[in-house]
Design a protein that fits this description.
Layout lengths: L2 H50 L2 H21 L2 H37 L7 H30 L3 H22 L6 H27 L13 H36 L1 H37 L3 H28 L1 H9 L6 H16 L3 H9 L2 H24 L5 H26 L3 H29 L5 H21 L2 H15 L1
Helix pairs in contact: 1-4, 1-5, 1-8, 2-3, 2-4, 2-7, 2-8, 3-4, 3-7, 4-6, 5-6, 7-8, 7-13, 8-9, 8-11, 8-12, 9-11, 9-12, 9-15, 9-16, 11-14, 12-14, 13-14, 15-16
């Protein structure tokens, strides 16, 4: 399988996984809510949520491990791959022990004193808490093994495991109504079992398939590898933490000035953004291993070219859905929610526009990760994102409308996206003019065409099902102009060849 074919297959696998799991999750949540009841479901949500706040650490560790594994795979140095994996597994284990131990120590205080839980359910809440800690620890151990699969570009298997995970959770939801024992305790116990099954699924396959996989001994600890992994992971945690601080900070500021009803509207916008962005993140995740491998192989120009493609494809895939959504957001929310909270339409529109701004140069983030120069990039780039909270608070403090904080959000996202260019010029000596030509100019026509298509549909059509026409018209015009203006001759030829082979 060629590199391009692998990207397509991996992207399709992630799309399929996401769609299936979203459907399974929605139905599972409905069943669980009916079985547990609002009270016990609320206990699970708040208690497990306290632990889940730290799950971003595992995401950062996966990115870190995957970067180094892909880098050395690109160099063709399997011995280094094995050493990096072994040290990463040990690092994850020790961090997991540290985090889990700290959480367990505070467990009784959190469930009995900090959280407002009725006395009769405090013991069940404590069990849920420890179960959540166990799942978090399991995720720490699973993270480097999962990173190995990503580095090997075996996204199909990881997606299959994720789908099985969703199916098992649905089965739990169905079976839970037939079990007489405490439903909350049973539910938590079974979720722990699923996390162990996930770990075993990756563990067994990796043991059989990948020679670099092994259970390391403590004496294998390498100071240099641990230092490199810790430094990279630290800056990745910092970047993720800044994004979380920005998102939660906006929620706090809105609550301070407008109360909980506005928070519900902002929360809806976060759900919409998360549901849509999988379109762009899927192709980026599929391309990341090849970006890292190209840098590891010393092919800097190939790596930068892949980052240009990642930026272009990620933006275009997101815009095909996001632009019609922005145009028809009021109708979409009416269909979905019925009773739409005030300001929800405005929040959703601004959040999606900000997401598109970010995607314009998103591939350069992967380029920086491949090079490994995170300190300068993350300090400047992600620290700026927190200014949304600070400036937004000042705007609302001095009586500006609620939309002002979202204007600040979009402006800073646009500025940081453009800031990637001079930063990567300094770090990787990218050709800014080439990037603008290959990305900005090629996405301009499809983007403007879809905006015009949406405007025409909304302005001139008065139909109850107009939203379908808007999406179909914008998407079809988008696909046509993407083919005509966004794709190079080489990319068009590859697509033609790929479809020809697919028919055969």
């Amino acid at each position: 399988m060629t590199n391009s074919q692998r990207i397509i297959v991996n992207t399709f696998a992630q799309y399929t996984r996401t769609i299936i799991n979203v459907c399974l999750s929605l139905y599972s949540t409905r069943l669980i809510l009916s079985v547990l009841g609002q009270s016990d479901y609320g206990i699970y949500s708040v208690v497990a949520g306290v632990v889940a706040m730290l799950s971003f650490i595992t995401n950062a560790l996966v990115i870190t491990t995957q970067r180094y594994l892909s880098f050395y795979h690109g160099k063709g140095d399997l011995n280094q791959v094995s050493l990096v994996f072994g040290n990463s597994l040990l690092l994850h284990f020790f961090i997991g022990i540290l985090v889990a131990g700290g959480l367990c120590a505070f467990g009784p205080w959190i469930t009995h004193d900090f959280l407002n839980i009725e006395a009769a359910r405090k013991s069940a809440a404590l069990f849920v808490y420890f179960a959540a800690v166990a799942m978090l620890f399991t995720s720490f151990i699973t993270a480097p093994i999962r990173a190995l699969f990503v580095a090997r570009e075996n996204i199909v298997y990881t997606s299959a495991v994720d789908v099985i995970d969703g199916v098992l959770k649905l089965l739990i939801a169905i079976l839970l109504s037939k079990i007489s024992y405490d439903s909350l305790v049973t539910y938590s116990s079974l979720l722990v079992c699923i996390s162990i099954v996930n770990l075993l699924a990756f563990l067994i396959y990796a043991t059989i398939k990948y020679p670099e996989f092994h259970i390391p001994k403590v004496k294998e600890l390498n100071k240099e590898h641990i230092k490199g992994l810790s430094n990279f992971a630290g800056w990745t945690v910092y970047s993720t933490g800044c994004v979380i601080a920005r998102n939660q900070g906006i929620s706090v500021v809105l609550n301070l000035f407008y109360g909980t009803l506005v928070n519900s509207a902002y929360g809806i916008s976060q759900q919409v953004s998360g549901a849509v962005q999988f379109l762009s993140t899927s192709i980026l995740n599929a391309m990341n291993p090849q970006i890292m491998k190209a840098e590891g192989a010393g092919e800097r120009q190939k790596m930068l070219h892949l980052c240009e493609l990642a930026s272009k494809y990620s933006f275009l895939l997101l815009s095909l859905v996001a632009i019609p959504l922005v145009a028809e957001m009021d109708t979409i929310l009416q269909i979905w929610l019925g009773d739409v909270p005030e300001h929800a339409v405005m929040f959703c529109r601004f959040i999606l526009i900000a997401a598109m701004c970010d995607q314009i140069s998103i591939g350069l983030t992967s380029a920086n990760q491949a090079i490994g120069e995170l300190r300068t990039y993350n300090t400047i780039f992600y620290t700026l994102k927190i200014f949304v909270v600070i400036i937004g608070w000042g705007c609302l403090k001095y009586g500006l409308p609620i939309s002002s904080i979202m204007w600040i959000y979009v402006i800073i996202e646009m500025l940081t996206s453009l800031l990637r260019l001079p930063l990567m010029k300094h770090i990787a000596d990218i050709d800014i003019s080439r990037f603008c030509k290959n990305v900005f100019l090629r996405i301009a026509v499809p983007c403007l065409t879809m905006i015009v298509a949406c405007y025409l549909s909304i302005t001139y059509l008065v139909l109850s099902w107009r939203v379908l026409i808007t999406f179909a018209f914008a998407a079809s015009m988008g696909v046509l102009t993407i083919w005509a203006f966004a794709l190079s001759d080489k990319e068009k030829q590859y697509i033609k060849t790929w479809f020809t082979n697919l028919r055969k």
